[in-house]
Amino acid sequence: MNIGNLPFVVAALLVIFGLYTLLFKRNLIKLVIGITLIETGVNLFLVTLGYRTGGISPIYTYAPEAQQMVLPTPQALTLTSIVIGLATTALLLSFAVFVHRHYGTLDVRKVKELKG
Amino acid sequence: MTALTTHAPVLLIAVPLLGAFAAPLVGKLGRGVRNTLIGLIVLFVALLAALLAVDVFGAGGAPTVYELGGGTFTFPLSGGQIPVRILFEVDGMSAFMGLITALIVLTGAVFSFSYWKERSGGNLYFSLFLLLTAGIFGMQLTGDMFNFFVFLEITSIAAAGLVGFRVWLKQSQEAGFKVMAMYTLSGLLVLLAIGLLYGQHGHLNIATLANSINGGLVDMIALGLLLTGLAMKAGAVPMHMWAPDAYGEAPAPTSAVLVANSQASLYGLFRVLFTLFGVGVSASALGWILIVLALLTIFVGVTMALIQHDLKRLIAYGAVSQIGYMMLGVGVGLARQASIIASSGVDALSDAATKLDFGLVSLQGGIFHMLNDAACVGLLFFASGVIIRASGTRDLNRMGGLGHRMMWTSIFFAIGAVALAGVPPFNGFASKYLIYEASFQLSPFLAVIAVLSSILLLAVFVKAFQAAFLGPKTDATAHVSDPSIGMMVPMAALVLVIIVFGLFPGFFVDHIVTPAAKALWLGHKAYIGAVLGGI
Amino acid sequence: MNGLTSGFGAWNPIAWALLFVGILVVSFIVRARGNKSYKRGSGQTKVFLSGNEEPADADSLHVRGDHLYWGMIDGLSAYYRRVKAWHTGIFSDYVAWFVGVLAVVIVILVWVG
Questions:
Q1: Which residue of B168, B357, B429, B519 pairs with B91 in a disulfide if CB–CB is 3.0 to 4.6 A?
Q2: What interface predicted TM-score (ipTM) does this complex get?
Q3: Is B460 domain-assigned?
Q4: Domain that holds residue B386
Q5: For A25, which residue in chain C has the nearest alpha carbon?
């Protein structure tokens, strides 16, 4: 197996761990951490897409001549995704705080008044 | 006016975004000033959507490409230009969805002015409302996949904020958490799919991606992720369980805009299926997956609606069921398109269009139903807001006797309910008629389930109407009356839309729906050609 | 203006509406030729409740929302018992359904497409 494929494997593992957390953990905060894990995995996947072997950072100032650069577009995508993840995590955590204030518990199996 | 039309795609996103951030500041000057500003913004947005629609439909549904700055678009870049390469590409389907969104946002905003009259927090509510509007228009007008993801997340955050807006209510916080988490999960999987497509092909623009997609393993995995993620956000069974929570707990005018949000992600699904993956990767499995999801949605949605005793959850399950009709119409069209391409090649598609093949008719029905459903469900949610405020409870087992004193509300509710259930001569029947006829040609079982569920939906709304409006006068409802004019005008406008679209369906189908349907059915080459300049 | 065509049939709502208005006119003419000699407000116009007196409070007269379709819901109770049990309010189940459908769709697309 090519050693360069390792980041992709790690990204896939992060997504799988995140989905496992979402499915099998009960605390609301742990569910938010699970979503953050999935998001981290996807961000890692995006950054790894742009890597070129032996490449340097994609900055033109003082760049050595005739040197391959890594792709800058996935880095822009990842920055955008990190900022979006910040906003969604903040909103999720504030909803978790309000749920705890109203229901008195953070157990997701007890927060089920809207059912049926 | 031409400058407005040329820049309409970006103004439709920028002006509500500016209004969203200006609303809390302007609100400090007073409620009247804020309402005037929001009203002007929403009217301007409706005008822009109409201009864009006239422009695109006048050109026969040919896609127009807008580059930031409004210059003439050339590919590849000629020297000296600023290389901002996020393009907006508006074809017949995008312009049609823009019209639907403009209608719902206009009526929702006018209804919200009266709904939030004596309550605080209106500034932030309108801020989130305009943010949601900007996000929905962004999803519908963009020509770039990552831009689509960004607007998808904007609508997710704004919609979840609106669902959990009333923080003093216990159940809206639970609904807000569930909705935000589900939207985020689906958004992340959509981002994963976009990353896979970028890694495989190297572009993010929808037209250039559509040109190079060839159906390999990575493409199909990305398609599966996109299909499931966007279908979940639209509310397809069995991933629909967040939808009654969300539509039920949001404030009444927002539920209508949340339905428009679901329809926008359904638009994204159709754009992916037909333009990105349609003609290049025509698999009949795609159409049948969509048809199976649609049948489940239609049937489970309406049967779960029958046993609800919360009024807004009942209407929410009805809305979920109608999303299934749109998916059924488009799924039949996709399956038929795949079989035509497999048997006679791509060029037979325009032939089939002139002969009014049942695939095109099914697409027309599904797309027309988006407009009808938005109007009817919007009207029902507005009326439910009025009913809940008048009777003080949301439980159908405790309401009653409102019809004696609220004549106009009961008439509007009845018209909206009957139109949604597909009773002639209203607009719901016009679109459902096309869906029944066309899906019968593919398989009679589909039409049977569709008709049966329409009848069950009528039963559901008879139950709601009887519980809320009929019955003898009670003391509890001795002081209710029809709501103020600010709430009656949006409802009356939607009733007018329902009646006009019901009495003259041929006119609207020929001029508005058929360009949108043809843009999906055979507009693949035109969509790519508008960006790449002839391939 | 002349209605929808679907390739297999046609639907003309103006014709339908004119027919409906025509039927309404005919029924009003038939009603106008009826017997006009009755006394309002007396026993001739009271609601007939199988011979019982009309009860005073609204509760025993108004069939509430949940009880209106009792028979049909009871007939479908086998279906409802299963499907309503699937609609737990638990968030992890929502994710479970989503991941399940995702797996099935990806398997179908990779295998068939």
A1: B519
A2: 0.95
A3: yes
A4: 282-505
A5: C92
